[in-house]
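The instructor's notes for this session suggest beginning with a concrete chain rather than abstract definitions. Hand out the sequence below and ask the class to guess, before any prediction is shown, which regions might be ordered.
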Amino acid sequence: MERVVILGAGVSGLSSAALLRERGYEVTLFEAADRIGGLARSFEWHGFSCDIAPHRLFTHDAEALDYLLRLVPMHKHRRRSSIFIAGKKVHDPVNPVDLILRLPPRISSKLVRDYLFKPRLPEESFENLALNKFGRGLYDLFFEPYTRKMFGVSPAEISVEWGRQKLRTSGLRDVFRRNSKIFFRHFYYPQQGGYGAICEALYDKVGDRVELEARVTGLETADGKVTAVRYEQDGASHSFACDRLVSTIPATVLGSMLGHEFTLRFQPVTLVYLLFDKPSVMPYHWIYFGDGDVVINRMAEFKNFARGGVPEDRTVVVAEVTSTTDDPLGDVLAAFERYDLAHRDEVLDSLLIHESFGYPVYDRHYELAVEDARQVFGAFENLHLVGRNAEFRHIEVDEDLASAMNLVRQLTRSQATVE
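After discussion, reveal the predicted structure:
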């Protein structure tokens, strides 16, 4: 029986462990934190199940969806979301037609004029991609400030590949296309326990093999293989032998353990949770804030994801902040008042959570850095990468699960070949 060590007890690590265990592998997970779930965890606060930023499940992967729906009872929600931009509330994703109809004539006419006379620039950056597709008006209004806010750098420094994958807009000819990772009408969400119920259900399958507060400090290698992991737990150092290693931790952290420094970067995120003394803040699941002088990227209200079982006279929202600010709480409250969502005297309690590995930063050189990392990791035949941070891909939970499923298929095929 092969001994598989898995680094990280987020959704990628837990799903890898559950799937491998079902197929007879001996799995052991090491998690540096004192809890499971990573960025897909939830926690209880003032009677609400709160997620680490907004989460929702939508996928075209039938196998992954079937697995998740069998794993956790879920409601199917009709998507309700919006964008605040230039003092107006518009459709999400950004639709140029909607913007033209809702914004003041002076701004609308510029959007139309700049769209009709779009440049033809070499698509060597996200900036040029957005300018080519929508013109200067929409770029200056939305794409430049939102991208700079999210990643901390100019869109001119962001890879065109990220834009092709994640451009949150529909073109003038794409108004009715609404069935993709960007354009989806419905999504699934656990009936109880928040989005973290997915990780909790996976943990139920492998919890006896999870070592919490076990910080991996290094790897032992020989003959092109990882032979053991070194870790610290309860103030003592240990070594744990393995036949295979599955890493779901950030590629940069794993690289350091192998003596390599990659130029890959992650954008940290601060999550501001607010308990309001009012039944509701907004009718939406989430809202995006497009204006560059507002620190919030997006905001979610957890009551709108739940169906009963939460306090009726109070509500909790979370605001995601990646902008550099010395006062995230104060800046978030100022944004709420600016858009007349709520007032600071209605706040009963607040909570701030900081995550160092929020988003992979797709700068213009990240493809070369990813290829460098693949070559380093590929030198070890029994080392496998699964999930968002390990693969340096901006993916959702269903794609993390799909990555784990793909790993299991590969190992199952190779094992069958050997036998």
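Then share the key points. Residues 37 and 200 are 8 Å apart (CA to CA). The two ends are 13 Å apart (CA to CA).
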